[in-house]
Specification:
By secondary structure, this protein is an alpha+beta fold. The chain has 16 helices and 7 strands. The longest helix has 19 residues, at 139-157.
């Protein structure tokens, strides 16, 4: 059964290609290796499958012989080059508001990585979590985003942002000189459950030096329209998933209700899903799994609450289903999200 792919913006791909051209690399050859057509990347609204971007990273690292290429690309990128999401962040009132906008509009840049913000007492946790199975080797995408984020945060407030920890989802490399140089004096944590930052929550109210309320309203309106268009269903499968997500509020949405909302008969809906190689139950499970993972990562709801929100009759039924999806019970999965202090370098 084919899984829905995730995409990133063509301008995001062009940032990597720009740095590679500056290094004298043959970017057209690298694009061919990755299955990309350079001409199509000129569309500012174009989208690229994440698996092609991953292939481009691997080809570029092989060509440059630089295992830390992603860190160096992130360092070379001007944070304002991120397009509309950068303009929304630059015109927010505070760093806190800007971070929330980043989380809200992350998909405009890349749908494969979810950025979230969680404030826990004196600490603010910025988490980067891979949500696409197509991103099998996420180190490069995550490293590049981490450096761009760090530089963007400091540009927004006009001073250094006190990072306490920088988290990396992959094991400690043999050489971490580039990591130490870019993120000092923060503690580096390798093998963490996710990549991201832990920073002093006291800096969240800091004002953004370029804040402009009128421009913020204008840019955010455009960002909302772009995101809405990006999320429009491209096939029956995505349409059904959207309907299930909207209906999944304390009870299990049946296929009869979904078919009625889509203005078609149950038989017709089943036939169309069969043509796309999927069943209604499979889509229901996929949506439930994605929402369950989000709630477990956010750590704001009990497992019983999550079971109720997903329309399960009993928490035990949810636990059995979750273990079938992931190999772990929800409580075990949540425990895995807490990283031991021994990860710190």
């Amino acid at each position: 059964m084919p899984e829905e792919t995730h995409t990133l913006s063509a301008p995001a791909v062009n940032l990597l290609l720009h740095v590679l051209r500056q290094q004298g690399q043959d970017t057209e050859a690298l694009c061919r290796q990755a299955g990309l057509e350079p001409a199509k990347l000129q569309d500012v609204n174009g989208r690229v499958p994440v698996e092609n971007m991953q292939a481009l990273w691997l080809a570029a690292i092989a060509a440059t012989q630089d295992p830390d290429l992603a860190l160096h690309v992130g360092e070379a990128v001007n944070p304002t080059s991120a397009g509309i999401i950068a303009y929304v962040m630059m015109n927010a009132a505070t760093l806190h508001e800007s971070l929330l906008k980043l989380c809200q509009y992350q998909d405009i840049v890349c749908e494969a990585i979810r950025t979230s913000l969680e404030v826990l007492g004196p600490e603010a946790h910025v988490k980067l979590q891979v949500i696409s199975s197509f991103l099998q080797n996420p180190r490069h995408a995550l490293d590049c985003e981490l450096v761009i984020y760090k530089n963007a945060f400091e540009a927004l407030v006009g001073q250094q942002v006190p990072l306490q920890q920088v988290l990396f989802v992959y094991p400690r490399p043999d050489n971490i000189a580039a990591h130490e140089r870019l993120f000092a004096p923060a503690t580096l944590v390798f093998g963490a459950p996710h990549s991201g930052f832990v920073l002093d929550a006291a800096c969240l109210p800091w004002p953004v030096v370029t804040a402009n309320q009128e421009l913020n309203l204008m840019f955010e309106k455009y960002a909302q329209e772009y995101l809405q268009k990006l999320k429009e269903p491209k096939n029956v499968r995505e349409w059904v998933q959207r309907e299930i997500t909207q209906l999944l509020k304390g009870e299990e949405p049946g296929i009869n209700t979904v078919a009625r909302n889509m203005a078609m008969s149950v038989r017709s809906l089943q036939s169309k899903l069969k043509e796309e190689g999927v069943t209604y139950q499979t889509l229901l499970d996929e949506v439930r799994k994605e929402i369950a993972l989000k709630h477990l990562h956010d750590n704001q709801n009990t497992i019983s609450d999550i079971a109720y929100l997903l329309g399960f009759a009993e928490p035990s039924v949810f636990s059995r289903s979750f273990k079938k999806w992931t190999g772990l019970a929800p409580a075990q999965y949540r425990q895995r999200l807490a990283w031991p202090a021994t990860f710190a370098e």
